[in-house]
Write a structure and sequence with these properties.
By secondary structure, the protein is mainly beta. About 0% of the residues lie in helices and about 40% in strands. The strands form five sheets. Strands 7, 8, 9, 11, 12, 14, 16, 18 and 19 form a nine-stranded parallel beta sheet that branches. A five-stranded parallel beta sheet has the order 10-13-15-17-20, with no helix packed on it.
Length: about 190
């Protein structure tokens, strides 16, 4: 995934030849997918980049958190199904109960001392970097990408998966919990994950 506030995701000058930009997810300020590539030379190959349709982005940070979540942490009814929510700032001491099939995109942001509960099937969470945060998946067909998850508090189950057919990609979990004897990085109570 390339996401930028610039005009283009990839820029090629007139001397760039025979390059291939293919099968990526590209988001620029004005253009998306193939259209986000600035192509100065027709000998370059640009194809199959997603998305191919306009998507409305919602921006989540400390200041906008209450626009998305109720006081108990449940996703508000006003958030549309399939919304793409870009997390644009660090979040601390939050409960996020995802009750609709949305996409949360974390980019170079930290979720700290929090809990993420996925309660809606077909939810996608990418790029999550977290500290002392627990992730619970109570839904099916969730896509979860964890870049880093560091546990230094008394959390004993870092990730709990209760739903089926989930795609979970974890780069790093570091558990130095105060209750290490009872600690589990991932607890599965489901199938086909």
């Amino acid at each position: 995934i390339i996401s930028t506030t610039a005009e283009n995701t990839v820029a090629m000058d007139k001397f760039s030849t025979e390059n291939v930009v293919e099968s990526n997810t590209l988001y620029a300020n004005t253009f998306i997918g193939d259209m986000s590539v600035d192509l100065a030379n027709s000998s370059n190959k640009i194809q199959y980049n997603k998305p191919s349709e306009i998507i409305t982005y919602y921006y989540l940070n400390e200041e906008t958190f209450n626009k998305f979540f109720n006081d108990d942490g449940t996703l508000k009814d006003v958030v549309p199904d399939t919304a793409v929510i870009l997390v644009t700032g660090n979040l601390n001491d939050k409960v996020m109960n995802i009750t609709k099939p949305v996409t949360l995109v974390f980019e170079k942001t930290i979720l700290e001392n929090s809990k993420v509960i996925v309660s809606a099937d077909a939810t996608t969470i990418t790029g999550i970097e977290a500290k002392d945060t627990q992730i619970i998946i109570n839904a099916n067909k969730t896509n979860l990408e964890v870049v880093t998850l560091d546990i230094t508090t008394d959390i004993t189950d870092a990730i709990i998966v209760n739903g089926d057919n989930n795609n979970i990609d974890i780069k790093s979990i570091n558990m130095q919990t105060t209750n290490l004897a009872n600690a589990t990085a991932i607890t599965l109570t489901s199938k086909l994950n």
